[in-house]
Amino acid sequence: MRPKAQPGSPVEWEGRLRSESPLKIMVMAHGRGSGTYTKIKASMMENAKLSLDGQEYDLPVVTGTEGERGIDITSLRGESGAITLDSGYGNTGSCQSSICFINGEQGILRYRGFPIEQLAENASFAEVCYLLIYGELPTADQLKAFSGGLTNHSMIHEDMKKFFEGYPASAHPMAVLSSMIASLATYYPKIEGDEDEDLNFIRVLAKAKTIAAWAYKKSIGQPLVYPLNHLSYCGNFLNMMFSVPTEDYQASPVVENALNVLLILHADHEQNCSTSTVRMVASSQANIFASLSAGICALWGPLHGGANQKVLEMLEMIRADGADYKKYVNLAKDRDSEFRLMGFGHRVYKNFDPRATILRKACDEVLEELGVDDPLLDIAKQLEDVALNDDYFIERKLYPNVDFYSGVLYRAMGIPTNMFTVMFALGRLPGWISHLKELRDDPGSRINRPRQVYTGATQRDYVPLDQR
Ligand SMILES: CC(C)(COP(=O)(O)OP(=O)(O)OC[C@H]1O[C@@H](n2cnc3c(N)ncnc32)[C@H](O)[C@@H]1OP(=O)(O)O)[C@@H](O)C(=O)NCCC(=O)NCCS
């Protein structure tokens, strides 16, 4: 785990390159308020050369523990007056992070070094939350205390219950979730000190599931169900979602287990849009609730967390059109058509998405165990079959992605379509929190403030209204 640095003191830690050669990295820690930044010195440092206006600039190359390289341009503007331009940030490393490693070509996803397959198979969501936030798997005692916290802080302030009465029944649950998480700041105003901050991590993880379930209950006009302390994290959420005062409810262990896996698979994915948003907002030293609420809003978009909802909407469209899935497969292959099969292909994972592989298995088990008979899921299976056997999809490496299987699974579990992105947010919370903590623990972190290349009008004089 990264050691804590005192301002002004050098900190060293050992890492390993993929080639297994030892890598010694030295971080020079500077005071937060001083306006200086973390400087990296690696013993195996190379330099990249940039030539501009006939002048050469040496730019240090920073190498991560998995051999990924980044050209450090921190001093570029100061020395040359130029900035780099990378619209969409596809080539920009915004930070150094020890939380999550992805290799899209090889289909690798690891949290804190642990393969996602092993975590999904063996861990509980609470364990993964602890791992992401604190960097190590918890001991039995640590897990007991942490899980106990997640249980004991599940209730939300009774006054907040009134907020739900103010929203229209048609409110999208993502709007409710983001505003409720921001509202937690009114009940837990920032108090300086590590202990309170850690308690806020627990609070937000514990209360988010209650808020999410209540947003759903409100939307269907059912009474809000309080959390029960004898239930697990996932069991509690399912109980608040699906139980009603008029009859007994017991969550199916198959569904509870599938939810645990789904939350783990979504827990982190390094510097994506919502995580970068959380880091951006937190970099201004805004409070944790405001930072996480911003992350939820970023996740809401259809190009990010909203994609799993799109999968189900596509399946519904195909069913409404006579379930002729082959017609839509042909449409997706047609160069003249803009139609794409939602839930197929991935920007990063070109071989396979390890999360999709795990979910595919979980899908088979859940559908069989629950004996779900759903024409939408039949269409999904037929589309999956095509994608795995059709040359068009094979040549372009268009496998069903995590959103495809998570959409299908949530549907089978009885989660309504407009709650899919909320489920994603519940899973991603520990990732966001761990990035926020990493940023705060870095004594060299500064407010995130990109620059731009201005392309607007050059200076001109104000024209009075009657002369325009
Ligand atoms: C995820 C996605 C944006 C990745 O895009 P990308 O890496 O930029 O891939 P490209 O857009 O360059 O596509 C490469 C080729 O595959 C085709 N293709 C990509 N995704 C496709 C899909 N879902 N259905 C049909 N064809 C698809 C493209 O038309 C292109 O074909 P061409 O080489 O004949 O022109 C893209 O696959 C997509 O739009 N998928 C559907 C939306 C989705 O599921 N999003 C959630 C992602 S987690």
Q: Number of domains in the coordinates? A: 2
- Going by CATH, the architecture of the largest domain would be Orthogonal Bundle
In the predicted model, the low-confidence regions spanning at least 5 consecutive residues are 1-44
Helix content: 40-55%
Task: Provide the structure class.
Answer: mainly alpha
CATH domain topology of the largest domain? Citrate Synthase, domain 1
Radius of gyration: 24 Å
Strand runs, count: 9
The first-level CATH class name of the largest domain = Mainly Alpha
Strand order across the largest sheet? 1-2-3
- Tell me, briefly, the overall form: globular
Number of helices in the DSSP assignment: 18
Mean pLDDT: 88
Largest sheet: 3 strands, antiparallel
Helices and strands, in N-to-C order? EEEEEEHEEEHHHHHHHHHHHHHHHHH
CATH homologous group name of the largest domain? Citrate Synthase, domain 1
Small-molecule binders here are: coenzyme A
Strand content: 5-15%
**In whole angstroms, how far apart are the ends?**
63 Å
